[in-house]
Every structure is written in C-alpha cells, then in structure tokens.
C-alpha cells in the first residue's frame, strides 16, 4: 500500500526531539505500557488512524508560547465514544492509500483542515483501543499555518480547537482518572476532560518531547467524578 510520505525534515526545531523519539520506538513502547500493553499482534493491519497535529512558530528552536495541538469533542449523540475528547481521525477506508492518507482525509472531514497545510512527521506503533478493539495508528504532524479548523461535521464533532500546550502542561490541569481498575492520565482544558486513549497519547508525547512539568500523579479521581460538571456530556456505560 502506497501511503502519503512522511517528511520529518519539515519539523520545526522545537519538535525535532519528539520526532526522533517516535522514530526510535521509545515513545511507542511508553504508549503500550500506559495502555496496559494494548498493542496489536504482529502483522495485524491498521483499522484506523488519528492525526496528532501541532501548530506554532516555525522558526522557534524551543517550544514557543503559541504551541498548540488540535483536539476535537465528539458530539454527545454519537453511538460510540460519545462526548469524548479526541484527535481528528477515524476508520481507514478501502480508497485510502494508508493510515497517513486516512488521518488527513478524516481531519479534513471533521475539522476542514486542508491537507496541503499539513506535514506528516512520524508515526507511532499501532495501539488497540478499549471497547472497539480497533488497531489505531497515531500520526504526528505539524502545520505552520493550519488556517481556521472548525466543526465541519457537527453530527460527529461539535467542537474543534487548538489546545495551548502550556495550558495542558500546567500541573493544575493534570490528574489521573480511574475506570474499572485502570488508572490513566487526564487533562482539563476549556471545561473539558481529556482522558483515555487521547490522554495517554498526549502524556507520552509531552514526556518524549521533554516538555513535561512535575505534576501530582497520585491525584486520582474516579472518572465519573472528574467528568461531573465538565462539558464532555459523556455517557459512561
């Protein structure tokens, strides 16, 4: 399968170390560990892909103040993962050239993001998500000028925004959530709670990039408690 080419050389200086950690596999190992080892078996094809898109000053060597990562809120009426915070992405269709192509297509359909604005930089090892048991390929990407992403498919996504990296890294916005014996990292941003697959990916990206600030990992909240009063409107089964 011929996919969209990765262009790691297009990474700005402040993302270079993160791209390197993704290429050497260390970040992928950490994702699998924090998701309790949910990696698909050898040779299993990818079912879906997500786009982890960063934006911020292209000329900066260190992480700039305007660094942000694109996040969506899944419409609460969706049948699966309703009300959750997520990276743009979804199922790899037969017409897609591969996971990178699928992630770019899905991002355009969900947020209006034009693919010519995006430089795909690296991929992580596929991870199996809980519940749906899908093999998902995370794609790291960068855009110097992402335009104005918006909720292009309201039935699927009702909010789209660039979450400021500085706010996500703020220890006051970080905690752990517990669900059915599983503890995982979570973030508070714009009144939403980011947790689960997306929360773990953000946690690993920040750690791999060397951006993480000390925060209270011992602060663990039941997921239901953490979501109470949030804008997520998640239905916990």
List the helices and strands and how they pair.
Layout: H1 16-23, H2 26-34, E1 48-55, E2 68-74, E3 85-86, E4 89-91, H3 99-111, E5 119-123, E6 127-128, E7 135-143, E8 157-164, H4 165-169, E9 174-179, E10 182-189, E11 192-194, H5 196-209, E12 220-222, H6 223-227
Parallel strand pairs: 1-7, 9-12
Antiparallel strand pairs: 1-2, 1-4, 2-3, 2-8, 5-7, 6-7, 9-10, 10-11
Helix pairs in contact: 1-5, 2-5
Structure commentary:
With 237 residues, the protein is of the alpha+beta class. The chain contains six helices and twelve strands. A hairpin with a 2-residue loop joins strand 9 (174-179) and strand 10 (182-189). Helix 1 crosses helix 5 and helix 2 runs antiparallel to helix 5 (196-209). The model has no long low-confidence stretch (mean pLDDT 92).
Principal-axis shape equals: globular
Fraction in helix: 10-25%
Q: What characterizes the major β-sheet?
A: 8 strands, mixed
- From the structure provided, what is the oligomeric state, counting identical versus distinct chains? single chain
What is the string of helix and strand elements? HHEEEEHEEEEHEEEHEH
Based on secondary structure, the structural category is alpha+beta
Low-confidence stretches: none
For the structure shown, list the relevant keywords.
237 residues; four-stranded mixed sheet; 27% strand; eight-stranded mixed sheet; alpha+beta
Quick description:
The chain is an alpha+beta fold and 237 residues long. 23% of the residues lie in helices and 27% in strands.
